[in-house]
Amino acid sequence: MDFDAAFTAQLDTLRSEGNYRIFAELERQCGAFPRARSHDDDAPDEVTVWCSNDYLGMGQNAVVRQAMKDAIDACGTGAGGTRNISGTTRQHVALEAELADLHGKEAALLFTSGYVSNWAALSTLGSRLPDAVILSDAGNHASMIEGIRHSRARKVIWKHNDPEDLDRKLSALPANAPRIVAFESVYSMDGDICPMQEIVEVAEKHGAMTYLDEVHAVGLYGPRGGGISEREGLADRITLIEGTLGKAYGCMGGYIAGSVPLCDFIRSFASGFIFTTALPPAIAAGAQTAIAHLKTSEIERMQQRRQVARLRAGLNARGIPHLENPSHIVPVMIKDPVKCRMLADILMRDYGIYVQPINYPTVPKGTERLRFTPGPLHSDADIDRLIDALTVLWKQCALSHAVA
């Protein structure tokens, strides 16, 4: 078999559908974010990044950067192995304590990414709890879906953000089966926020475990950055909270937080934890510093909310369609993969505005979009320039001014 020919044929299909992904080669400039140096021939030398998940610019924070430098000078670079063999350091232990405190839980457990923490935790829970049933919100992230699939547990999908449908699905299950309700707080593509209290109450009514993904909320919501569960005063009623260190905290890694037995159970049985090299101590030190900072500082969150509101108001004034939601994510709807790619290319080439098109399979076909994430380091002038550019392109491309 000509394997390369088979690979190329499928890639050509992806290109013809407008869903082939092209990476922009960028070099972030410390102290200048959201500016970045572009190494692409068809883009300006300097561009403004509009699609980063470093939501609060903590990857640029001087205290966080210094904590990482100090840890490198003290410990070197890598962790030296898996946590089970030679990779547990004081920085890992301190970070887990910081995370447990953030969510008001007894314990926390680190992973190398949010994807891995979801995959490992859900696959372990589903496979190790006899006759477990995992009830998954229809909008859940790919990492959750993969974890559930790998667990080989029975899966029941309930309608997105619909507690009544969840109640119906739970009522139809055997009362003695371990049931795990898996959902997210902030959904990253539409930016909608779940009706958390209603979901928790339905789960409690049926004696089900709650598994909450807060990756797009930690650092951003709640008085200490504990996420929507902290903001709503519900963290103590949720069995397991999963989060990331790679978005609002500006570092890398994922984690779960819960009871001591729960975290020890995942630590002892999850292959995604047992066989993976630990995070470098410097990253753990930087993440702990970022979390501690955002537990007490409101400056970054308030400035981000100001810039999100400014962008939304500007888009509304120009009739640019974007999904209304209560979060920090601003999806501008294109609904065509080829046009979405084309608009992103023009924004980059002609305006130095970098935003990646969001196409299938990240979002359903027909819902393609440009996903903007205004942050505290975007200036008012940055926002005005983005709005002006989109206004020109909307007229040139004769795109719809309505959101279905």
Describe the structure using short key phrases.
404 residues, alpha/beta, seven-stranded mixed β-sheet, 14 strands, 15% strand
Describe this entry's structure for a reader.
- This protein has 404 residues and is α/β, with parallel strands linked by helices.
- The protein is 43% helix and 15% strand.
- A hairpin with a 7-residue loop joins β2 and β3.
- α3 packs parallel to α11, α4 runs parallel beside α5 and α6 packs parallel to α7.
Helix content: 40-55%
Number of strands: 14
Specify Rg, calculated over alpha carbons.
Answer: 22 Å
Question: What percentage of amino acids are in beta strands?
Answer: 5-15%
- Profile the largest sheet: 7 strands, mixed
Net shape: globular
SSE pattern, N- to C-terminal: HEEEHHEHEHEHEHEHEEHHHHEHEEEH
Give the number of helices.
14
Task: Report, as a whole number of angstroms, the end-to-end distance.
Answer: 46 Å
Give the overall average pLDDT: 96
Uncertain residue segments: none
Strand order of the largest sheet: 4-10-9-8-7-5-6
Q: Give the class from helix and strand content and strand pairing.
A: alpha/beta
